[in-house]
Design brief:
The protein has helices spanning 36-45, 48-57, 88-93, 166-169, 227-235, and strands spanning 2-8, 11-18, 21-24, 63-64, 69-70, 80-84, 103-107, 112-113, 118-121, 128-129, 132-138, 154-162, 164-165, 185-193, 205-210, 213-219, 245-247, 269-274, 278-286. The chain is mostly beta strands. Strand 2 and strand 3 (21-24) form a beta hairpin. The radius of gyration is 18 Å and the shape is globular.
Length: 287
């Protein structure tokens, strides 16, 4: 099942994607939760909720998907935990060694951007890079979970573009600044529930395209730390709450590692596609 977040009467709503139509969650449950985080928690505790929504959405009133003003899949997650250097070939192209513990950084909610939204390039930098990534959304909260049961805490998956201003990323030993410019983290187009995808999304093709040209092309199997292992390790030190987002790193082919480097510029269109999930598309413009 696919869920999409959007604005309705100035407020965040979410609903079920039915082809090119959307049924608001309010038409699919007698007592709908207030937001997608609360729904993820509900589904995590009672998976039969998804069956109820599927049954009711089939006869619910719908609106055109293309008529909606979309929001990031989870508009304001409590935490956005990101992995760096998490594909073997990407580590090699950047001259990095694969470690025995993942490189972790955080994004804030203001850095997120919806499908079809525009990534702004501010006056302070023109070193904007692309990174195709898999995003994981937590359902049932996780604390000190083991790897064997970690995937039971996943609600859904989505495409993510961890767009980064490389010069600002390297101004400090921590990557936070370069990864948190406003409206740079494309997150969409929708959430696909975990039951519709392979366990941990292993074996799915992941690709980025800049103006139609393939830049990155890999398999999620190439991750160093897979979803279950990552959730287990992160839950050892923090509670992963419903609606939290884990972004799983990017494969090789990013712009900075090319000769000469390839930076996104005004007028570009960047797409991230993950097999069986969808295509995330964003434009680039000057701020």
């Amino acid at each position: 099942m696919k869920f999409i977040s959007y604005l309705k009467n100035g407020r965040a709503h979410f609903g079920v994607v039915l082809g090119d139509r959307v049924a608001d969650i309010g038409a699919c449950l007698d007592q709908p939760p207030p937001d997608v985080q609360a729904f993820a928690a509900l589904a995590g505790e009672d998976p039969s909720v998804l069956e109820q929504v599927a049954a009711k959405s089939a006869s619910a009133a719908t609106v055109s998907l293309h008529s909606l003003e979309l929001l990031p899949c989870v508009p304001r997650p409590g935490k956005i935990v990101c992995l760096g250097v998490n594909y073997h070939d990407h580590a090699a192209e950047g001259g990095n060694k694969v470690a025995d513990y993942p490189t972790i950084f955080f994004r804030g909610p203001t850095s997120l951007l919806a499908h079809e939204g525009t990534i702004p390039i501010p006056a302070v930098s023109d070193k904007l890079d692309f990174e195709a990534e898999l995003a994981v959304v937590i359902g049932k909260p996780a604390r000190n979970v083991n790897e064997d049961t970690a995937l039971e805490h996943v609600f859904a998956y989505a495409c993510f573009n961890d767009a980064t201003f490389r010069d600002f990323q390297r101004k400090t030993t921590q990557w936070t600044v370069g990864k948190n410019f406003d409206a740079t983290g494309g997150f969409g187009p929708w959430l696909v529930t975990a039951d519709e995808l392979p366990a941990g999304c292993r074996g799915l093709h992941i690709e980025s395209r800049l103006n139609g040209q393939v830049m990155q092309s890999a398999s999620t199997t190439d991750m160093v730390f897979h979803v279950a292992a990552t959730l287990s390790m992160m839950s050892q030190c923090m509670t992963l709450e419903s609606g939290d987002v884990i972004v799983m790193g990017t494969p090789d082919g990013v712009g900075y590692a090319r000769n000469p480097p390839v930076w996104m510029k005004a007028g570009d269109i960047i797409e991230v596609e993950i097999e069986r999930i969808g295509i995330l598309r964003n434009r680039v413009s000057r701020a």
